Amino acid sequence: MKIKAVIVEDSRLARNELKELIKKHEEIELIGEAENVDKGFELIQKENPDLLFLDINMPEKDGFELLEMLDEVPMTVFTTAFDEYAIKSFEYNALDYLLKPINEKRFTMALEKVKAQLSSNTEETEATQRLTENSQIFIKDGESCWLVKVGSISHFEIVGNYTRVFFEEKKPLLYKSLNQVEEKLPLQSFFRANRQQIVNTNFIENVVPWFNGKLKLKMKNGEEIEVSRRQSYIFKDKMSL
Prior knowledge:
Layout (H helix, E strand, L loop, with lengths): L2 E6 L3 H12 L4 E7 L2 H11 L3 E5 L7 H7 L5 E6 L2 H7 L6 E4 L4 H17 L15 E6 L2 E6 L3 E7 L2 E6 L5 E2 L3 H7 L5 E3 L4 E4 L3 E6 L5 E5 L4 E4 L1 H10 L3
Helix pairs in contact: 2-3
């Protein structure tokens, strides 16, 4: 299976360096390259690559800003000339990072990670182009940023015009409305509990009957979420309760 890849890098020399390395790996198909964030965004939206080689430090907009623009983030390998970014990239849950000039052995190691990740990802694609549990979304809240697997998110909650995302022990804000988020989530595992919250049913530990025909969900992370009366009927049907 070919792995479709794109390069977003402002340096022509660095792009050429990456292309020469890619040529040595028949499983990688380079389907495009871009010299800045805006062109990179257009390229990714058009081609929907499996893999993104992304420079961090670019003029006007940096690589992190590109990730923030995307609804779904491809597997990302950061390329950088600066050690400080290499360390920081782990906060973003990047698949890997490569320090320039890129070592051939180190490049091959990064590709092994890519292939391992691909083999564990679901190949299911919904006609509506919804995300899957293995899809990644990019979240930037203040100075902190994350690449988060959709399946690792326990629930979403409205905060004004934004949405709070709950995963691990973190609760950053996503600068999209809950309705926008709901349109992209996989139907099989996410459920609208009420007007304010969407839950990942895989994180439900217990379901308790509540007042006036409502249900209360006890989540594995300790959170308790009340399901509206209308949604309680739908939830029972969905879960065959």
